[in-house]
Specification:
By secondary structure, the chain is mostly helical. The chain has one domain. The chain is built from eight helices and four strands, in the order ααααβββααβαα. Helix 1 crosses helix 2 and helix 5 packs across helix 8. It starts with 10 loop residues before the first helix and ends with a helix.
């Protein structure tokens, strides 16, 4: 299955869309008058980022489609285990911000797992690390650092919430283990070297959640 060439986008276009929509979202969430509106479009923002990343991927084929489906389904299943069994991450539940849920799990969380793993995987693919295992470990550590920034924002904006408002250490080491496993799967799929779009998405996420944390501390 080959994607028609006229549906692909250049890295430049992808980068502009990623940065522009994160900037607009950042401003919208910072302003109290527009915050509720921008919280309502969070699921659409994730869908847009999915579309951009898919269209920017080189050599779209059945293998890439299978990878997306695998990470999406795995993410949903792992979150179901986390929410309903508390075996992963800790005692938490999802709020309304991430949109439509099935069995209390937002469908967009599967998209989010794909985006984060793909972005970290391509970033490591483009790094100077030549061996799989260093790339997997460093990539997983990057995602744990990102989660440190995401958690306060997620709680504040009702992405999810924790029992007794305490984020357990278990959340972070499970994030590391899950991320490392998924990044290992990414490596085994053996995708050709991808464009800068995915690393730009990862860097933009760090800036986006970092600035929201600063604003939250100052407000």
């Amino acid at each position: 299955m080959e994607r028609p060439k006229d549906l692909s986008i250049t890295p430049r276009t992808a980068n502009i869309v990623i940065i522009l929509f994160h900037f607009v979202g950042l401003v919208g969430l910072m302003i109290p008058a527009t915050r509720q509106l921008f919280l309502q479009i969070v699921p659409w923002h994730l869908l847009l980022m999915l579309l951009v990343i898919v269209l920017a991927h080189k050599n779209f084929d059945n293998k890439f489609a299978a990878f997306i489906a695998l990470l999406f389904i795995s993410g949903i299943v792992l979150e179901w285990i986390g929410v309903h069994k508390n075996w992963l991450f800790g005692n938490y539940a999802y709020g309304k911000t991430l949109g439509l849920k099935i069995f209390d799990i937002p469908l967009t969380i599967g998209i989010n797992w794909f985006l984060l793993i793909y972005a970290a995987g391509v970033t490591m693919q483009r790094s100077r690390l030549k061996s799989i295992f260093p790339r997997v470990i460093v990539g997983a550590l990057l995602l744990v650092l990102l989660d440190l920034l995401i958690e306060p924002v997620a709680i504040r904006f009702d992405y999810w919430h924790w029992a007794d408002n305490i984020i357990p250490f278990k959340n972070y080491y499970c994030w590391f283990l899950v991320s490392a496993t998924m990044l290992f799967v990414f490596e085994k799929f053996g995708f050709k070297k991808q464009s800068i779009a995915a690393p730009v998405l990862l860097a933009t996420e760090f800036v986006f959640f970092g600035l929201l944390n600063i604003v939250g501390l100052l407000s």
